[in-house]
C-alpha cells in the first residue's frame, strides 16, 4: 500500500494531533467455554525492506505451504492466554505515520492527549517455556538470508513481484507466520548480522549503522576517532535532540522500513491479531513497533530501546507497568542485553558498536545464568542459539518486572 504524500501526512497530523525442544499446541480457549483447540503457525511470507541507498525497495517473498523449517517441521506451535490491554483507539498506519511525521519536525509540540481503549485480546503465553522457546526458534529462522541456503527448501519460483515486491538483501527482514485460519499472525524481525555476534550476512553494514543510531547517546560519538552515524553532535557531551529525532525517523533507517512491513502485513491480514518477536536488534525493533501500535511483543536479548522510543515520541499507555504486553527476555551473562557492553575494553567497542543505553521499555524477564548456570559474561551469551538452549534448560520462564533503577545518558545534555 502507498504512504500518504508528505503534505497530506502533515494535514492529517494537524487535525488529529490534539485528539527443537518439545512443542505444544496453540491453545485458544474462549472465556465462555473451557474447550481448547490446537493450531500451528506456518511461514507465509518474507518481507525485505531496503535501507540506506536502497530505502525505496520493499520486497516480498511468498512461501508455499510445502515449506519446512530447518528442524524438519512444517509448523510451529504456540500457546496463548487472554489478557486485558490498553492501547490507542486510533492506530491505523495512516494516522500513526502522520503523528510520527509531525513529531519528528522541528518546533513540533511534543506532548498530546491520546484517546485510549481497553480491550481483551489473546497474547503469547510467556509463562510457558515451550511457547517461549518456539518464539525464539521463529526469530532464529529470520536470520536465514535467502531461500537457497542449506537451511531452507527450494521454494521453486523464489520471488513474487506481482504486488510491486521483489527481493533486496540489505535491509530489514520480517518473516510472517500465520495460523490456519489467519486469526493470529506472528512477525519475526531479523536481528544484527555481524562477526561479533557469530552471525554474518549481507545486512551487517546497515545493521551496525542502525545499532549505533538507536543505542548510543549521540550518533555513536564516543570518541573523536569514531565515525558518527548522524550529524547531531554539537560539542562535548552536548547533542541536538531535534536532530536525533529526525535521524531516527529518516526514510533510509530501519524504523521507517519496519512501519512499511507492518503496513503491508496488515493489508494482507486486516482482521488478524498480530504478535511481534525478534532477537538482538530485531527484538528492539519489534519492541519499538509494538510500542507504536500496541502489539504484544516478545523480544530476546534486545539492546535497551527505551531511549529510542522516547526520542520517537511513541505512545506509552497510562497503565501500571505490570500490564505491559512488551516482554524483554534475556540473561545476566549477556552484556548487550544488560547494557554493560561499553567502554574501550568491551567486545562491542572493539567491534565498532556504541552500545550505551541501559533501559528497556516494557518488562524485563531476566534469567540469572551467571548464578544458576555459571555462565561467564560474554557476547557469546547473546546468540540466539544460546537463548534457545537457555530457555529449554529451565523448568519455568523468568519473572517479568519493570526495571525502575536505570537512567540513559545521564551525563549528556540534549538541546
Automatic annotation (TrEMBL):
GO terms for cellular component: multivesicular body membrane; vacuolar lumen. It is found in: Endosome, Multivesicular body membrane; Prevacuolar compartment membrane. GO terms for biological process: multivesicular body membrane disassembly; neutral lipid catabolic process; phosphatidylserine catabolic process; piecemeal microautophagy of the nucleus. Transmembrane segments: none annotated. Keywords: Autophagy, Endosome, Glycoprotein, Hydrolase, Lipid degradation, Lipid metabolism, Membrane, Signal, Signal-anchor, Transmembrane, Transmembrane helix. One of its GO terms (molecular function) is triacylglycerol lipase activity. Its main location: membrane. It is a single-pass type II membrane protein. Gene3D superfamilies: alpha/beta hydrolase. InterPro entries: AB_hydrolase_fold, ATG15_Lipase, Fungal_lipase-type. Residues 1-21 form the signal peptide. It catalyses: a triacylglycerol + H2O = a diacylglycerol + a fatty acid + H(+). Binds to both phosphatidylinositol (PI) and phosphatidylinositol 3,5-bisphosphate (PIP2). Lipase which is essential for lysis of subvacuolar cytoplasm to vacuole targeted bodies and intravacuolar autophagic bodies. Involved in the lysis of intravacuolar multivesicular body (MVB) vesicles. The intravacuolar membrane disintegration by ATG15 is critical to life span extension. This is Putative lipase ATG15.
Amino acid at each position: 500500500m502507498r504512504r500518504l504524500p508528505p503534505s497530506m501526512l502533515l494535514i492529517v497530523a494537524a487535525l488529529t494531533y490534539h485528539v527443537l525442544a518439545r512443542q505444544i499446541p496453540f491453545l485458544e480457549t474462549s472465556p465462555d467455554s473451557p474447550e481448547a483447540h490446537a493450531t500451528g503457525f506456518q511461514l507465509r511470507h518474507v518481507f525485505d525492506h531496503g535501507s540506506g541507498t536502497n530505502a525505496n525497495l520493499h520486497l516480498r517473498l511468498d512461501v508455499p505451504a510445502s515449506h519446512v523449517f530447518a528442524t524438519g517441521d512444517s509448523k510451529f506451535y504456540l500457546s496463548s492466554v487472554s489478557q486485558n490491554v490498553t492501547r490507542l483507539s486510533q492506530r491505523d498506519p495512516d494516522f500513526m505515520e502522520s503523528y510520527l511525521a509531525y513529531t519528528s519536525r522541528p518546533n513540533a509540540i511534543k506532548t498530546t492527549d491520546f484517546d485510549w481503549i481497553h480491550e481483551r485480546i489473546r497474547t503469547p503465553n510467556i509463562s510457558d517455556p515451550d511457547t517461549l522457546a518456539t518464539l525464539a526458534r521463529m526469530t532464529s529462522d529470520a536470520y536465514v538470508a535467502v531461500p537457497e541456503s542449506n537451511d531452507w527448501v527450494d521454494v521453486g519460483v523464489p520471488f513474487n513481484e506481482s504486488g510491486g515486491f521483489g527481493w533486496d538483501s540489505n535491509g530489514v527482514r520480517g518473516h510472517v507466520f500465520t495460523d490456519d485460519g489467519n486469526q493470529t499472525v506472528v512477525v519475526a524481525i531479523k536481528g544484527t548480522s555481524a562477526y561479533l555476534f557469530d552471525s554474518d550476512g549481507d545486512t551487517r553494514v546497515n545493521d551496525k549503522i542502525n545499532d549505533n543510531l538507536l543505542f548510543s547517546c549521540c550518533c555513536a560519538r564516543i570518541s573523536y576517532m569514531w565515525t558518527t552515524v548522524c550529524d547531531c553532535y554539537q560539542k562535548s557531551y552536548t547533542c541536538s535532540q531535534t536532530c536525533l529525532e529526525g535521524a531516527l525517523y529518516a526514510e533510509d533507517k530501519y524504523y521507517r522500513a519496519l512501519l512499511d512491513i507492518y503496513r503491508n502485513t496488515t493489508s494482507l491480514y486486516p482482521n488478524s491479531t498480530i504478535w511481534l518477536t525478534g532477537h538482538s536488534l530485531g527484538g528492539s525493533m519489534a519492541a519499538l513497533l509494538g510500542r507504536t501500535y500496541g502489539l504484544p511483543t516478545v523480544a530476546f536479548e534486545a539492546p535497551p530501546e527505551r531511549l529510542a522510543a522516547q526520542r520517537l515520541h511513541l505512545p506509552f499507555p497510562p497503565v501500571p507497568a505490570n500490564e505491559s504486553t512488551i516482554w524483554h527476555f534475556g540473561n545476566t551473562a549477556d552484556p548487550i542485553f544488560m547494557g554493560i557492553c561499553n567502554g574501550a575494553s568491551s567486545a562491542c567497542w572493539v567491534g565498532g558498536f556504541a552500545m550505551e543505553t541501559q533501559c528497556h521499555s516494557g518488562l524485563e524477564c531476566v534469567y540469572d545464568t551467571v548464578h544458576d548456570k555459571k555462565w561467564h559474561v560474554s557476547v557469546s551469551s547473546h546468540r540466539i542459539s544460546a537463548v534457545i538452549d537457555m530457555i529449554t534448560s529451565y523448568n519455568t520462564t523468568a519473572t517479568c518486572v519493570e526495571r525502575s533503577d536505570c537512567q540513559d545518558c545521564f551525563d549528556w545534555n540534549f538541546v
